[in-house]
Amino acid sequence: MSKTLLTTLALLAATFLIAQESDADNWMMSNGSLEGFVVGNQYFTLVSDANLREASNTQSGVITKLPIATTVEIVSVSTDSLNLRGVKLPWVQVRTKTTGKTEQTGYLWGGFLALASIQTPNDEYTPNAGVQYLTGVAAYDENKHQITVQVRCAKDNKELSKCEFTTNGDLSYYPSFELVFDSFKKVKAILSVNYYYPACGYPSGNNLLFWQENNQLVKVLETSSVSDGGVFYDSEEFILPSQRGGIGDHIIVTHDHSEFEEQGEDFVRTKQSFGIVLYKWNGAKLVKVREVK
Predict the structure, then answer these.
(1) pLDDT at 201 over 90
(2) Same domain, 54 and 72
(3) What percent of the chain has pLDDT over 70?
(4) Residue 171 — pLDDT band, cuts 50, 70, 90?
(5) What's the pLDDT score for residue 138?
(6) Do the beta carbons of residue 201 and residue 183 sit within 8 Å?
(7) Which of 85, 114, 143 is the last residue of a domain?
(8) Are residues 134 and 254 in the same domain?
(9) What's the pLDDT score for residue 104?
(10) Residue 242 Cα distances to 26, 51, 184, 278, angstroms
(11) Are 74 and 89 members of one domain?
(12) Residue from 31, 36, 205, 240 nearest 119 by CA
């Protein structure tokens, strides 16, 4: 490794104690959470051929099958629910909002709707123009407090790619979804997916996915963070090449751990450690290059 790169890492270890802001363009639209759906809001179907039913149960008749990324508006939220793979969500009455087609009203299971979505403008200046990126939950393990997240890419109501992975989470967590375009070889887009709960003591995992030129969507990295106010925090953050302090073709992961004790009216830091791991993208996977503690 060059002396310049080693010097950069040493400086990062001494100075990067906060999350870095991205300078890249991105689009983000968070639609809801696992706690409930909002009447009047618009959502997108997460799966292909989602059954739009006459009533809020699996025995009722199917009005039609909705393709992936169909726009729907929530009319009402039923008191009836369905549990699939540990995910218990209500049935929702929806109205389709497809341009140029007759509106239809029926019931969808909540698990068939994206909890967060990103849609890129359909113009000549935007990479992957007109693509919709969707995320939701496919399974939940209550004993392990883990959720299986699904992420899908679609265009013109056709699925282009999908990925499922397990991460820390609960059915009360909120989705955070971000799209970034960066300079990694053979990568069309980068997605950051984080299901989190805004309270002390709840761990969350921020997952980095690469959508590659061969249309494979793969999880390449996961960072985790947890804190308890006045007691400790343990935080991992990743830095992409386009972000401040980033290095071309590399991802930097910073790890900051601090512990505190109450002394009088103040909390005093009693322990702190900081480290950095450097990864390089070789066109197929991330490879650990260097670790500094």
Answers:
(1) no
(2) yes
(3) 87
(4) confident
(5) 93
(6) no
(7) 114
(8) yes
(9) 92
(10) 12, 41, 10, 15
(11) yes
(12) 31
217 Cβ neighbours under 8 A, 6+ residues apart: 151, 152, 153, 161, 162, 163, 191, 209, 210, 211
Report the distance separating Cα 106 and Cα 263, nearest Å.
Answer: 60
What is the number of other CB atoms lying within 10 angstroms of the CB of residue 214?
8
- List the single range of 19-23, 194-198, 251-255 with lowest mean pLDDT: 19-23
pLDDT in tens, 118-141: 988 888 888 899 999 999 999 999
Asked if residue 30 has pLDDT above 90, the reply is no
Same domain, 227 and 131: yes
The residue type at 86: G
- For residue 133, list its beta bridge partners: 118, 153
* C-beta of residue 189 within 8 angstroms of C-beta of residue 197: no
Quick one: tokens of 1? 């490794």
Residues 224 and 209 in one domain: yes
Find out whether 161 and 153 touch, Cβ atoms under 8 Å: yes
pTM score, whole prediction: 0.84
Q: Please check whether residue 278 is in contact with residue 291, taking contact to mean a CB–CB distance below 8 angstroms.
A: yes
Exposure of 268 by Cβ count < 10 A (0-12 exposed, 13-18 middle, 19+ buried)?
Answer: exposed
Going from the C-alpha of 167 to that of each of 3, 129, 164, the distances in angstroms are 37, 29, 10
State the pLDDT confidence band at 99, using cuts at 50, 70 and 90: low
Q: How confident is the model at residue 262 (pLDDT cuts 50, 70, 90)?
A: confident
Domain count, the chain: 2
Instruction: Examine the domain organization and report whether 126 and 230 are in the same domain.
Output: yes
> With DSSP H G I counted as helix, E B as strand and the rest as coil, what are the percentages for the chain, rounded to 5?
5, 55, 40
Among the listed residues 20, 14, 19, the one whose alpha carbon sits nearest the alpha carbon of residue 293: 14
Whether 181 and 61 share a structural domain: no
